[in-house]
Structure formats: structure tokens, C-alpha cells
Amino acid sequence: MNNIQKRHVFYLSGFDPRGASFYHRVFKEEAMKQSNINKIKVDIGARKKHSKHSQLWKIEAQDQGEYVSTQYEFLCWDDIIRQHWVKSFWSIFIDFIYVSWIYITTGTLKRVANVSRTPAITGLYPAVYIAISGLLAILLCYASLAIFSAFNLTWLGWLIGLILFSVFIYSAKIIGDRINVFWLLRIYAFTARWASGEIKSIDQRIEFFADKIFATLHNNQQDEVIIVSHSVGTMLAVAIAARVTAKIDNHQVKLQLNMITLGECIPLLSLLPKAQAIKDDLAYLSSTENLYWIDYTSPADGACFPLVDPVKISIPEQQLRNSPLLLSARFYKLYTDAHYQKIKRNFYKMHFLYLMSHDNSGEYDLYAMIMGRCSLKERINKK
Asked: In 39-88, which residue ranges form alpha helices assigned H by DSSP?
């Protein structure tokens, strides 16, 4: 098989308000570190604006004597994320009530738990944190009122109690941000509103990205085109890929679309009763022959649906034809024992391991997939 000489990678981040500048820096640092493991020599160019909703950097790589040029295009939707990144504790509490109502009353939480206990248990994390924080703040206020009332200073008890309540809630908010507990809640709130059609700008952005990717496929100047997505970005990737493959099915295009989903949490959206659009997209992806889809997850990643087929659990069985190839990243093999044990204590960092460099070589190597001389399909088939 001929080696890849020109490749175009489109990347979709997860629900993260940090944009292309942050991800370019991370990519450059981690790719250089990983080059010591996979022995691919890389030169990563500067980040440049490529369109009104994307930025691009070029990668020149040398893999076993073969030169590979990759255009890495960061598809920007962080502006939409920031619009729905609530910050005040009151707004977070409102989202907590909203999410609880939607996921419990519609039976979605039960469906999520039936599919995989991992994300269901992780989903309780913000709920428990908010409930305990609120209860302790109320107890502090009550204790102040009880103490000062004993000295006939009820008014002072109320005053001190309200001050203690406010200080405790403010402190809980700061700590919650540091340990990323509200990040999960924001994701659940966003997916619930997306399913209900409240995120008006998302469909236009998906269409823009789909047109851009299809144009790249259609010009036949690349040897390979890959969509790479992480976390909540995998939901957008499904919608985009459905539109791109529909265009491929109706036009003369020589290339097949490749897609890599990392740490997918698609069922958080697709299991909601109102999320018919993504169910239709998944059904279409199951029917097309013009998509090669690799899905990497890890049982140690509490924020994903590990080794769960998002197509099979989301559409009727009679519509199921093709599914993504489900693979485990096996992070425990990619790091030293001491390093891995330290990482495991941080669920947020664990969810981002798909984008990080490793201590050891292994089957999972994102940077080799998007910069190496082998096509994605060839690399996977060699394993």
C-alpha cells in the first residue's frame, strides 16, 4: 500500500472554553514529547487563522525515512461553549435543578446507567458536591442563629449566619472550579439544552464544518482526511460526519472519510428522548460505506462510555448495519506504574490522556495516527 504523503486532520475539542491557542500549545508540546517514543521527527508550524471558524497549523514529519505533510485544522466552537459556560454559583445551582429534572423525569439517567455505570456514577459527583455544600452552608447559618439567639441577639445571629453562608458558598464555588466538578454539570446542561433545540447556533456551525470538510475531500489533493474529536466534540463529529458522508454518497469523491472519536460521551445526548437529530445521524453513519470510524475509550476514564457502541444503543436494531471499531486505549500500558497511579487520582486529567504523550510505546498513539506514513486503516489493521 502506498504511504501517506499529504493528510488533512480536522480536530474538534470537547466542552472546553479554551480555544485554538491553548490546543496548539498542548499539541506542540505533547507531539514533541511523543516523538521520543514513536521516533517520528516532527516540525510543527505556527497557528494561523484559516477561516472565520477555524485555525490551522502545518506539520512536517519524517517517519522511517518517509516525509509526510499534515494540515491540522482546529474547528472552533469555543465561542458557543463560552456562551453556555455559567460561572456564578446561583447559575450553576439552576443548571443542577434543570439537569436533575431532565435526566431523571425522562428516564435518561436510568438508561445511561443501564448502558454503562461509569458515566452514571461520575454524573453523581456534581450532584453530591452541590448538595453537601448547600447543606453545610445552611447548617453554619443555623448554628450561628442558634448561638446568638441564646443571648437574645437573634438579629446578629441572622447577620453572621448569612455572612457565613455566603462565604462558605463562595469558597465551595472556588474549590469546585479547581477540582472541575462543575465542568461535568455544564456538559449535562449543554447536552440537555441541545437535545431540546435551545442551542440555536450549533446547527449552523455543524453545517459550516461539514461543508469545509467535504470541500477538502472533493478537491482530491489529500491522500487522507481524518476527523479527530474528543469528549463532547464527538457529538458534533457524528453530526458533521453524517452530513459529509451524505455528500460523498451523492458525488464523485475518491476518498473515504476517516473518523477517530476519543473518550466519547455520545449517549449523554443520544439517549435523551428529544435528541432525534443525533439518532438520525447515527443511523445514517451506520448505513454508509464511506466512513471508517475508530472509537477509543478507556474503562479508567470516568467521563466516557468505555467500549460502548454509541450507534447500537441509540438506534433501532433493524437500522443497524455498521458500527465503529471499538478499541481500548489501554493507558495502564502506556505509563510507568508510579506515573499511572498518580494520574488515576485526577479524573479530569485521565479524560485528557487521549491527547497526551506517553512513557512507553503502545498500540494507541494519536500522534502517529495523524502524522505517520501509514494510513489510519492500514495502521489499525496491522495491530
From this structure: 78-83
Q: How confident is the model at residue 2 (pLDDT cuts 50, 70, 90)?
A: low
Residue with cell 455528500: 247
What was the pLDDT predicted at 251?
Answer: 79
The pLDDT confidence band at residue 118, using thresholds 50, 70 and 90, is confident
Write down the domain spans for the chain.
6-81+207-382, 85-191
Distance of CA 332 to the CA centre of its chain: 21
Taking CA atoms, 231 is separated from 306, 351, 353, in Å, by 12, 8, 11
Contacts of 69 (CB under 8 A, 6+ apart): 5, 6, 7, 58, 59, 60, 61
Report yes or no: 199 and 193 within 8 Å, Cβ to Cβ: yes
C-alpha cell at 250: 451523492
The mean pLDDT of 344-353, rounded to a whole number, is 90
Q: Does 1 have pLDDT greater than 80?
A: no
Inter-residue contact 144 to 161 (CB < 8 Å): yes
Out of 3.30.2130, 3.60.21, 3.40.50, 1.10.287, the CATH code matching 6-81+207-382 is 3.40.50
Task: Please provide residue 60's backbone torsions phi and psi, each rounded to the nearest 5 degrees.
Answer: -105, 120
- Taking only the tens place, the pLDDT of each residue in 222-240 is 999 999 999 999 999 999 9
Residues 55 and 12: their CA atoms lie apart, in Å, by 11
| Maximum separation of any 2 CA atoms in the chain, in Å | 88
Strand-pair partners of 293: 259
- Grid cell at residue 262: 476519543
On whether the CB atoms of residues 353 and 340 are closer than 8 A, the answer is: no
- In tens, the pLDDT along 256-283 reads 999 999 999 999 999 999 999 999 999 9
